[in-house]
Specification:
The termini are far apart. Helix 2 (78-96) runs antiparallel to helix 3 (101-122) and helix 9 (287-294) packs across helix 11. A hairpin with a 2-residue loop joins strand 1 (2-6) and strand 2 (9-13). The protein contains eleven helices and ten strands. A three-stranded antiparallel beta sheet has the order 3-4-5. Strands 6-7-8 form a three-stranded antiparallel beta sheet. Strands 1-2 form a two-stranded antiparallel ribbon. With 331 residues, the protein is of the alpha+beta class.
Length: 331
Amino acid sequence: MYIVRYADDFKVFCRYRADAEKVFIAVKQWLHERLKLEVSEEKSKICNLKKQYSEFLGFKFKVIRKGTHYTTRTHMSDKAVQRETKNLIEQVKRISRPKDDKDEALMVCKYNAMVIGMQNYYCVASCVSQDCAKIAYQVNRVLKTRLKGRLKKQGSYELHNYIGQRYGNSKQMRYVHGQPVVPVGYVQYRIPHWKKKKVCKYTASGRAEIHKNLGLDMDILLKLMRNPSIGRSIEYMDNRISLYAAQYGKCAITGKLLDISEIHCHHKTPVHMGGNDRYENLIIVHYRIHQLIHATQTATIHKILAEFDLTSKQLAKLNQLRLKAGLEEIS
């Protein structure tokens, strides 16, 4: 048999019903005697996954035959569909009666975050597009009724690069005073990834495996997550964390492991030259290297160079960043 657990919610999978009945009794008895816990009779039951759905963590799934083998058909659970529909409709109502233009923009941003969050979580359900289509049907009716003349087909997402990349090709895109409203029904199934069985945050060896795979200083990573840069976009802060992980906490020029006080996130194409906060336009470097990239005074350049024994290859990387910033190469 197999057991899949998340916190206090778990499923036990058996090949034969006779085994399932024995395990069901044994699990209830063990939980009662060892942990003094009672199993919910309403939520706990034995079911044949070839004939009926079973629910787990907001999903419902069953086994279906596909050619000569079996696979799973997964949906959002009925309760999840009802909950998400209700929450989104309530948010649309808030958008319909804002205090002012700023409040309206904030309400639209929150609505978009709710939709994107829902799609990111449930996109591993094989039938997620069908479920989101049901939600979209009800939510869109309320959008059209409540927002009436404010909901347009034309607008811009220049300040919302992520939305533009992900939803720009959708004909379901709508705009409120030029601000994009993310389409609920525009979602695609994403194949869930496998992970090693020994990776587990509940055991010492499992946690060690997680840290080994990351190869990062988790204290620094947490500090980056909990200390946002004032005045920077969410996209910038998210990409800064992603880059720190991708570069294994090292400076992109020197290869030196960076302490939290040494981490600087550099825009390859500066913002004043049209650069943005996208992942490909950012790079993690040592704060003194960052100063060197932007330095124009000869004395400053020589002083910082004296602190680092840069190889010709490292200097070439540095000069590439200086050229993109519109500055001369360092010879």
